[in-house]
Amino acid sequence: MSRSSREISVSGAEKRQLAVASVTLGPWRPAAVVGALGGGVSLALHLVHGHFGLGVLTGALSVAALLFFCVGGTGSVLGYSARGRGRDHRIRRWARSHPWQVASVPAAMMFLTDLVLRQVLTSQGFFGSVWTGLWHGAVVGAVVGLAGTFGRSRA
């Protein structure tokens, strides 16, 4: 029996639910630590150079969010979790075989987080905030998707 004949047909809505479910299983506590450290280093580097303001704070928070979503998303697509392995092995297997669908979830969350940060804390225009959020989301999506693709090929 070939692999394709064993797969069950899944609708688009079910694929989105599986992608979100697989992302929730990621290593989000370690991702928060990495994000906080990266954001703190970014802020400290700006302070050492004598720069401070809401733009600098926004930049540091954006770096923290980018690292948070990259680490958490990559861990979820590769099947890593801070909680260890549970009864969710089928969701993890689906995530490993669909890395780009899983990558779209942290990418979208990065876009929304960055958009809100820039709209609330800076005077940047809406379209500038959208553009910055889009490319930050694209970076997260690319990192997570590529890690899942190459991680799957090595497994």
Structure notes:
The radius of gyration is 17 Å and the shape is globular. The longest helix has 29 residues, at 126-154. It has seven helices and no strands. With 155 residues, it is mainly alpha-helical. The two termini are 22 Å apart.
Protein traits:
155 residues; 7 helices; disordered N terminus; mainly alpha; 80% helix
Oligomer: single chain
Shape: globular
Structural class: mainly alpha
Mean pLDDT over the full residue set: 86
Distance between the termini: 22 Å
Detail the poorly predicted runs.
1-5
Biggest sheet features = none
Separate helix tally: 7
Which helices and strands appear, and what pairs or packs with what?
Blueprint: H1 3-6, H2 12-24, H3 28-48, H4 54-78, H5 89-97, H6 99-121, H7 126-154
Question: How is this structure best summarized?
Answer:
This protein has 155 residues and is an all-alpha fold. The protein is 80% helix and 0% strand.
